[in-house]
Amino acid sequence: MSRPFMISPVIRNALAGLGALLLGLGIGRFGYTPLMPVLIEQNWLSVGDAGYLGATNLFGYVFGSLFAATLARLVPVPLLTRISMVTVGVSLVACALPWGFVWFAPWRFLAGFTGGLLMVGAIPLVLSRAPLNQRGRSNGIIFTGVGSGIIVSGALVPALAGFGVSAIWAGMGLLALLIAALTWKQWDGDITLPPPPAEAAPARVFTLPVALLLAAYTIDSAGFVPHTVFLADYVARGLERGVAAGGLVWVLFGIGALCGPLLVGFAAEWFGFYRSIIGVLAIKSAAIAILLVSQHPVTLAVSAIVVGAMTPGISALVSGRVAELVGFGAHRQVWGWLTAGFAGASAGVGYLFSWLFDQTHSYNLLFALGASGIFIAMLLTVFVRNPAEKST
Hints:
Elements: H1 9-27, H2 32-41, H3 47-74, H4 77-94, H5 101-128, H6 135-161, H7 165-182, H8 202-205, H9 208-223, H10 225-238, H11 243-271, H12 273-289, H13 297-326, H14 331-360, H15 363-381
């Protein structure tokens, strides 16, 4: 009897992680971006409430990231992952009821919270099951889930828009539940880590390299805000090229986000996580700064694709670098710190950049700040080395 599928266990494991991020971030979080104008146009939410609802989801992500390590000690990670994936789907379906901001807010917070749990809880579990020499590739596959979700939600929203807002929410929710069902069995079992040595207490885990990596990753999160929040609006209104052109730029960003993690995964295997992080941040800073000197369609496309690729790509690299610095025994805890810092900075800088734009109406100021921040993050990563590595 022939076997219909010959997917290796390593790939199946990585695909489960891809599904978790596709569901939790790509659909549960970024699926709101193309939906927001539809909510406003069809009078489900005011402009202000639509913005606050997006922030509510992001703050939920912050809290989920912070509490993930604690919950993982109380609940088996495979069970916690399954609960989180189902919760994201249910929260999206619940938003199909047009009961206003007060109804939407707790559900969007819950979607963000469980998205944070998936990022901090499920990803270390998947990574720990990968062979050492394939972790860079596994990381790359896992983080393509973000870009996949951006593309899927970007296609799903206009396809269902003619059927009304309820159909969009329900469609995204049912898709999320389908992904949860398809990956359900892959979460069977748990990992058995050796007990950490006595010196691996949290105080020792938070070393100078970890602190610098936390600072760099947090600053990087601020740097990509102009692209994730303002790029489509910049093209549509700032350059007066229309909504269709702005939408195309968002799709290109999603295509980059789909391909980037795989590319940086291979880079990590060739050059190591340390060198790859420095290179990715340098490229990302340049891809933002180029908009200050050129607004040619090719320039816009390159900037969108490259920044889209490097946004989840840097997360894949940093996750792998954390494992190198602290080991898998403390990976979930430290990855939780970094994810919370990343999300918190994104939320805070999102509000700050919105205020700056209201005051100045300058897109170039935002792009300049973003590129400068990522360049500073790159300089910090140069020093993210353990003493043992400095001799190599």
